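Re-run with default settings, no changes from the original entry. Doing this only to confirm the output is reproducible before filing.
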Amino acid sequence: MGSERSYNARLVSDNGLAIMMNLALFAANAFKKYTVPKIVFGDATNAAEAQAINDEDENDDGVPPEIDAYSALGVYQYMIENGNVVPQDIINDFAQFLSGLPAPREKTIGQFLKRNLTIRRDP
């Protein structure tokens, strides 16, 4: 999420793009919510601030409770039960992230995502 190389990768086929995009949204959301960066350098103030942020994040993960985001099978089961529909809050988060990226090249994954997620985003 944020790799320029991935963003500029060529889009070679339209087969299964909706499903792949939805799976990518769940993966990006899980990466954003559940990866834990570590402070390597800092002082006691930095550590206290980081702990406060971590505690806040643990209390609000933003994922509907029926989705087991730690499990690929849980995400897949959620998608099957909900007609391959991604929760709107996940779409909005990712669309907001994409809006901060530069204009993508023609026929790239970045262009596809930017066009399609902007359409699906809540106003």
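Residues 4-34+66-120 form one domain. The two ends are 23 Å apart (CA to CA).
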